[in-house]
């Protein structure tokens, strides 16, 4: 599904900042999300297994089986919601649902347009060779060579700064929020590309803010 703000974007990441955030809840969210981390550990194992199956499916049929695509999209959605609630953004105090679905009412959302056809030649190289420059960039964002987890690096540092700002000023700096979401958007675009879910090469561009830029503004 596409959004009005980005009609041609295959990966659409949106986020809405809570109008009022608890000053101190963020200090214990690492405890609150432990059940999610346990479930996501196994879901990400399944994600990689599905990606391997999809690799061969694309290679021989040029299609990513829709049911497998929806499952991996669900894993990315679940991960983004947990990250947004916890130390990937601290943008909401609404506890993330245990769900692979779109959850349109949750303030952190992710949509990826289902590709009817994928390139057989690209599937051989995009997840390792073509994505390497992006891996180097997001390693700085996340604190490691990973596209699926928000466990350190620049994103976590900026999020902790935002947490202290909320604690002492009762407000989340809007510019900082826009930057943090932009960094996460870059990570999720790369995750979708490396996960073989799109042939659209992720732009080397930091699109900040809670919503995708309009098509004209993104150029």
From TrEMBL:
Highest taxon of the lineage: Bacteria
Keyword list, A-Z: Membrane, Transmembrane, Transmembrane helix
Transmembrane segments: 34-60, 124-143, 149-169, 176-196
Keyword Membrane: yes
InterPro entries: DUF4389 (IPR025498)
Keyword Membrane (UniProt): yes
Name recorded for this polypeptide: DUF4389 domain-containing protein
